[in-house]
Amino acid sequence: MANFPVASWEHLTDDLLPSDAVIAIDGPAGSGKSSTAKALAKRFNLLYIDTGAMYRALTLAALKGEIDCSEENLLVELASSSSLELKTGRGEIGVFWNGEDVSLAIRNPEVDAMVSLVASHGGVRNIMVKYQQALGRRGGVVMEGRDIGSVVFPLATAKIFLHATLEARVDRRFKQNQQRGHQVSHEELTEELARRDKKYSERATSPLVISPDAHVIDSSGMSLDQQNDACALACLVNPALDLELDTDLETALREIPGNYRFAYAIMNGLSRFFGMKEVNCQGKAVPRGCILASNHVSLWDPPLVGSTFRRFRVHTLAKAELFRIWPLGALFRWVDSIPIKRKGFDGTAFNLASESLLAGNNLLIFPEGTRRAIGFPGPVRNGLGILVQATRAPMVPIFIRGSYGRCPMGSQLSPLEISHGPVIRWHGLDALLETTDRKEVSRRIARLCQSAFEELQARSFDRISQTDFEKKVGCKQLKKFALRQKKVFGT
Ligand code: DC
Q1: Which of 134, 330, 428, 476 is at 20 to 30 A from 162, Cα to Cα?
Q2: 101 lies in which domain range?
Q3: Rounded Cα distance, 281 and 49, in Å
Q4: In the listed set 200, 218, 243, which residue is the last one of a domain according to the structure?
Q5: Listed residues 181, 208, 243: the one ending a domain
Q6: Ligand 1 contact via 115 beta carbon (within 6 Å)
Q7: Ligand 1 atom 6 nearest Cα
Q8: Is residue 328 classed as helix, strand or coil in its secondary structure?
């Protein structure tokens, strides 16, 4: 049974799961994702979405149209000019391509043989991922696939990486085939599944990987019912832990001493002056002991982001150069800022930051390391992953938009908005470290943080469309910031 980090998981009840939950299930072929995803959808009254069916539908259409499945551009054109619809009913999913029901045809052996090639093209994945995100963004879904937790829904309510040994998966496929009247030997199945495992974990675009915040569940020795129960429990862990979070504003404000009160008064004044809007953080204090990871587009970001914390003892990692400017340096130290040298690895800053997190304080960082072009968050540097591995501190991703084009009383050109994402907890870290080296784990954490920024940005653009100003400035800044990145970090 999986090991869940809640004090009394026997008492987790299904009503803890919010109705707009997104459950992401990833795992290798034959791990039982589909059966469990359907069972969870039924249990929690959510919509079941099989993303593999989408790649299969495109493959079928390509085969019918005699399109070469290695031609990415032709496949992209086909996908962009066709309509794909998924309908759920009686547990099975209905797949319609240009209005035609292809639910059965997409399971043909011809499709089986070509679908992995089709799904390996970056252009195809971009289209499918956008479609999947649009289907799931309003919530209330269970989505299964290979990259749902890592790419499609970085902020999912629950992520599950379901796996089983090769032997267990071969046994299950063998029995399934027998029931369907297909005769495939154990040896052939072993060879096929091992080949598919290798292909999906090694491919360049969206490889099958454990997201560091996923619950990793090995179902090898479990019956289907046990597997479903373990996964259902995993879905309830984050909602249960969220209930335990201390975000009470009144208590947090009572604890704030004079120096912080002064700093918050200035920061609040600034955010009001610029007409800043808060999303998912208004009227709350940030939970304790978290890494508060924000994207960075302007020198105004630290005070504006800081104004949303309302909590005593938020250490901030700030570039060492700033501490040499009088009286800025003294002021920064007064409110717990830690100077960090940006070139190479600054062990002193890292140790101070880790100790502070382990003591239950918060840490604000801008993990991109320097300002980035607006509209293009990331890449996130590996320092975040090193910090996470040393402390296991949960992370709240924060997205700031509009601090670059800010205007007194608000800007039409670029609305000033700060949104906090959900608390990300590193459930999968230990399992990941068993098979993956620390550097690669840091890269995965960085990649997840970048995806979280991208998702928060997409939600912001859903609320207020990206403006022409933002598009133009972002494109101009791209080159300039790439050069700065090189200058600052030497990479
Ligand atoms: O789960 P399935 O066998 O129906 O998936 C069909 C193919 O699509 C399989 O080759 C894996 C691929 N796939 C993917 O690359 N990404 C997803 N999110 C889902 C499926």
Answers
A1: 134
A2: 15-243
A3: 30
A4: 243
A5: 243
A6: yes
A7: 52
A8: helix
